[in-house]
Amino acid sequence: MISHIFKILWKHKKSNALIIIEIFVSFLILTAVSTYLFKNYTQVSTPIGFETKNRFMIIFYDNSLLDSAAYASKIDLLKNSLENQPEILSVSFGNVVYPFSYNTWASNTNINNTKIWSLGAAMDENYAKTMNVPLLFGRWFDAPLDTGAIDEVVVNEAFLKRNFNGVNMVDSLIEHNGKKKIVGVLNNYKYNGEFSEDEAIMIDYIGRWNRNAQCIYYHVKEGTSAVFEEKINKMTASTMGITDFEIKDLEENRITENKSSWVAITAMSALALFLIINVAMGLFGVLWYTINKRRHEICIRKAMGATNMNILSQFVSEAMGMAMIAMIPAALLVVQVPLYSLVEIPSEMIYTGLTFSGMFVLTMVLLCSLYPAWKASNLHPAIGLKEE
């Protein structure tokens, strides 16, 4: 039966070639779109690791005094002024790796031929309280009691998975640009938003660099008016003596950053939908044309005893056969992507997209072929024979 179906497809290869090419191209694009959507769904379904509602940050762009005692003194004075505001619940320092900045500090350390890699960030002891950062294990670091104390750091779970095979390293000492003591583990920390990857990160205490804060975070009470932001703006300018800074609402920042990702997802989904409709209409048209052209063949088969189910299954099988001819080489091409690491996407997501696309295309082909095949199966033998 299978060989007979492929013989029929080969006999009508000219009329089937276009639809096979359409399915081939659409299957590749649908696999790419599915993989992209699965990747983004996985990312957006995991928390970013900190709160953005009612959180603001003051970003300083003038770095000329960043390491000076004068700058440290001014920044401490500004922090005290912010903490004295009744509308503010908590204040914290941070370095240049602040939320939605896309700034990156990466470091590598080789220990006994083992590479330890991570992104880096620096915060103070109040950051977890200010930004409501949940910890999976351990605690947030404290301010060191003296300059000779071992650096306490917090890492995320991705850091442990990448560098220590997921082993819980809380209270362990490691060599990573100096001796560090891991005191806490975050579940997630995606400082660039929901659509960013949860990469390995280590958060140090910012006081090791003379409080060279490029960012100050503060948490305001629920319902604080927008007028308060203007008050903070004037206070910052007068205290720091500079105007090269910006106050950002983290919740608005998060929404803005997500818009570009949603636009890309919508555009790719629209493209995939257009191709699916195009292929469905093409397949339906080819099958409809085939039935009208092969009425005589269908009626002879029915006159020789073929049942309605025999005719229906033949045309459905031919349609599924065309889909398989198109999908098998396309699937072989897709499999090369994870094998040769052509894109930075986990292989399981690519295989998930491939499987979903294959099932979707086969279901679409089945549904598109059922009605034309049903029409063919209901042809009366006398109709085709009389026309002939």
Structural class: alpha+beta
Poorly predicted regions: none
Radius of gyration: 31 Å
Give the overall silhouette: elongated
Oligomer: single chain
**Share of helical residues:** 40-55%
Please work out how many helical segments DSSP would assign: 11
What is the domain total for the residues? 2
The helix/strand series, from N terminus to C terminus, equals HHEHEEEHEEHEEEEHEHHHHH
Biggest sheet, open or closed, and with what strands and sense? Answer: 7 strands, mixed
Tell me the distance between the termini: 27 Å
The number of strands is: 11
What is the mean pLDDT?
A: 85
How much of the polypeptide forms β-strand, as a percent range? 15-25%
Question: What brief labels describe this structure?
Answer:
2 domains, four-stranded antiparallel β-sheet, 11 strands, alpha+beta, 11 helices, seven-stranded mixed β-sheet, 388 residues
Description:
This protein is of the alpha+beta class. The protein folds into two domains: 2-45 and 259-387, no CATH class; 62-243, no CATH class. It has eleven helices and eleven strands. The protein has helices at residues 2-11, 13-44, 69-83, 127-131, 157-164, 227-240, 250-293, 295-303, 308-339, 347-377, 381-387; strands spanning 55-60, 88-94, 106-111, 114-123, 135-138, 151-156, 172-175, 179-186, 201-205, 215-220, 245-249. The strands form two sheets. Strands 3, 4, 5, 6, 7, 8 and 9 form a seven-stranded mixed sheet that branches. The mean pLDDT is 85.
